[in-house]
Write a structure and sequence with these properties.
The structure holds 2 protein chains of 2 kinds. In chain A, helix 5 crosses helix 6 and helix 18 runs antiparallel to helix 19. In chain A, about 80% of the residues lie in helices and about 0% in strands. By secondary structure, chain A is mainly α. Chain B is about 75% helix and about 0% strand. Chain B has a two-stranded antiparallel ribbon. Chain B is an all-alpha fold. The chains are: A mainly alpha, B mainly alpha.
């Protein structure tokens, strides 16, 4: 046990290092080493503890889900899943005002089942959906906000890297947390679509309604008709092919997630089958051996830093629990008299602030080992709390000054004239929706716990 | 300076080769898990020792990729503060990262080489029964990976010192954006 000063020092040091720009894994690991030294006063203990953790921390069957789910998502993304989903969403929402925006959100929600990384969705839909919306005269901030905002859905809808990391840190069941995310994820998607439809109804100029009328005039009526007639025939054949391949993708995903949910296999086994199934689909779709190797290499590139972070985070959280910091933080928070709700608000506020500054996985690694035990002690359901946390952290990715999703959209959009400010203002309604879902979860935790308890 | 660029070259080659090795292991992992599941479901004979092999390979993958993560600039960090301080600010942050990184992974090497020697010499095994997984590959790769991390951070530190002195941007290794969000 440490004195209060040492405990606080450990947390302050890690935050100071992170904000000084030290690589986050290193900041966590070095602070852990410092913590053990403060506790034991013996370098020999530091040495054996760290070396043991290096060998033991990741030696667990469950960590294999990370590269395997990434492999599955990347193979499916290579099949053109994002474009197919967008075309289908577009088709299905023909009757809606603002249908291209609604289609973007719908496709993002479905694409969330394919990939566990929001950035991938933001990059893909910047290239697919944004040019299409502009072509129909959507105002650019409206279109950009839609792409950036709906990309958040990828992290809420399983499989999600954030959920996996959260479970690894808290020893929650991955399958259950995946299930817990489904209803809040769909709720957020519904809220976003509602916003788009209402906005398009109230202010048609946002979705270029007035402009299309003007543009349609110069063309002769019969020309337009024959063009659209021949196009729809072509579309129908295309749609059939797209529908078939999407059905395959969807059944693969439902198969793997379903098998995990019904306890037929462990998350690792499900991820392994999903990865090989996705490879088979990609081969059917004509992926070249070179591209397969590229995908596998990319998964290696992205999982490297993540695994190192996980190792260092385990070092840190082990040391943190040894110091008794969580206990101390808990009694401190309770003694402030803020009550469970006040403490929840404080935590969400911290997430929002951190979300503006650093990436979501690092936030989870820094805060969850402290927050989660406190929340459970206060009587919040761990699953609902996890979903609230992920939502709050994702919201930070949309807010200035460091909303990483906004930067991704800016980098990926083919239009060079786009301003960052446009994307930030366009995505305001989306983070309001996300925060509304956080509030809904705080009041009705059943939204998250209903499916896993079935 | 020439010696350093030779070191940089060799380091880049080695970490890239290890990245390829890790990628192959990840790829094979999928098939191993599948074979295990289908073997159990249809032929009532799972691939023996799959859980042990999978868990061991995660340690191996992590440390095979460790050097590459540092060398390629894949390590996640925030430049909220240092970015505002210009080229020298970023160089200072990089230097601090590199020094602490060398320290942390130095401790890992220091604490891991004895268990590695023991594992190699005594032929230590993990698991029991029909399939026992030898410990030495994972133990050695932890040490090798940590050494490459130290070398990569050493190169980063030198370039950061260069940038601190010259104040020029091109001396800073500009890391790619965080791969994960």
């Amino acid at each position: 046990m440490l004195g209060h000063f040492d405990m606080i020092a450990i947390v302050v040091v890690v935050l100071a290092l992170v904000f000084a720009g030290v690589h986050i894994a290193i900041a966590l690991g070095i602070t852990a080493a410092l913590g053990i030294y403060l506790m034991m006063g013996d370098v020999e203990v530091v040495r054996t503890f760290i070396a043991n953790t290096a060998y033991e921390a990741l030696r667990d069957y469950v960590f294999a889900v990370i590269p395997l789910f990434m492999l599955m998502g990347d193979f499916l993304a290579k099949c053109g899943a994002a474009r197919d989903l967008y075309t289908l969403g577009n088709r299905a929402s023909k009757w809606l005002p603002g249908r291209l925006a609604a289609a973007t959100i719908l496709a993002n929600a479905l694409f969330g089942f394919v990939t566990g990384v929001s950035i991938a969705a933001a990059a893909a839909f910047s290239r697919i959906a944004y040019p299409e919306m502009r072509r129909y005269g959507y105002r650019s901030d409206f279109a950009l906000g839609c792409v950036a905002g709906s990309a958040c859905l990828g992290m809420l809808i399983p499989p999600s890297v954030l959920m996996i990391v959260w479970c690894v840190l808290t020893e929650l069941s991955i399958g259950k947390l995946f299930l817990a995310g489904v209803i809040p994820g769909l709720l957020a998607a519904a809220g976003m679509i509602l916003y788009v439809v209402v906005a398009a109804k109230l202010r048609p100029e946002l979705v270029g309604e007035t402009r299309t009328d003007v543009a349609a005039v110069p063309l002769g009526a019969d020309v337009t008709q024959s063009v659209s007639a021949s196009r729809s025939v072509e579309d129908d054949e295309n749609i059939r092919a797209i529908l078939a391949s999407t059905l395959l993708v969807v059944s693969l995903i439902i198969g793997t997630l379903g098998a995990i949910w019904f306890g037929l296999c462990t998350p690792t086994e499900g991820a392994g089958i999903g990865a090989v199934g996705a490879l088979i689909l990609a081969v059917i779709k004509g992926i070249k051996p070179r591209e397969v190797w590229q995908v596998v290499l990319d998964v290696g590139r992205t999982s490297g830093p993540l695994l190192l972070l996980l190792f260092c985070a385990q070092l840190y959280s082990r040391v943190l629990s040894m110091t008794g910091f969580t206990e101390a933080a808990k009694s401190f928070l309770l003694s402030t008299g803020a009550g469970p709700w006040g403490i929840l608000v404080i935590m969400v506020a911290i997430w929002l602030v951190l979300g503006c500054l650093i990436d979501s996985i690092s936030i989870i690694l820094l805060t969850v080992p402290i927050f989660s035990p406190i929340a459970v002690h206060l009587g919040f359901d761990p699953l609902a709390f996890a979903i609230m946390g992920i939502l709050a952290i994702e919201t930070g990715l949309l807010t200035p000054p460091f909303g990483i999703l906004v930067f991704t959209v800016k980098a990926a959009v083919p239009d060079r004239n786009v301003q960052l400010a446009e994307i930030f203002t366009g995505s305001i309604p989306y983070w309001i929706v996300l925060l509304a879902v956080v509030a809904a979860l705080a009041i009705f935790p059943q939204l998250a716990t209903f499916l896993p308890r079935l | 300076m020439r010696k350093i660029s030779v070191l940089q070259d060799w380091n880049a080659r080695v970490v890239r080769a290890l990245l390829a090795a890790a990628a192959v292991i990840i790829f094979l992992l999928g098939f191993l898990v599948c074979a295990d599941v289908f073997g159990r479901a249809f032929f009532n004979s799972p691939v023996k020792g799959t859980p042990e092999m999978v868990s061991m390979s995660i340690v191996i993958i992590c440390f095979l990729l460790a050097g590459y993560s540092v060398q390629s600039g894949g390590m996640i960090y925030t430049d909220v503060v240092s970015g505002a301080l210009g080229v020298r600010g970023r160089a200072a942050a990089q230097l601090l990262s590199a020094v602490l990184g060398i320290l942390l992974f130095g401790i890992i090497i220091w604490g891991s080489y004895e268990p590695m020697l023991h594992a190699v010499l005594s032929g230590e095994y993990e698991g029991e029964g029909a399939l026992r997984v030898p410990v030495w590959p994972a133990r050695s790769i932890v040490v090798i990976g940590a050494i490459l991390v130290v070398v990569s951070y050493f190169i980063l530190a030198l370039s950061a010192v260069g940038a601190l002195i010259s104040g020029r941007t091109e001396d800073i290794v500009v890391p790619s954006a965080s791969p994960h969000v």
